[in-house]
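Predict structure. Chain length: 70.
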Amino acid sequence: MKNSIKVNPLLIAGLVLLVNAFVAVLVAASFGMYELLGVVIGCLGAGIGLTVTGLIRQNKQREKNQRVLN
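Prediction complete.
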């Protein structure tokens, strides 16, 4: 059986939002556009939540697959 890495879509979305927050911080700091900090806070909140949820679901799926194989 071929082993392939399956990544939860929530995990990917969370990581993308975290990267977006980092880029927005760089832009805000570089150009003095501090009104972007609201966007940064929103991206961080959603990104952390989605990343944690994606990791939990991925681990649950991995445990479920291990029980089926054993």
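Summary: Helices lie at 9-31, 37-69.
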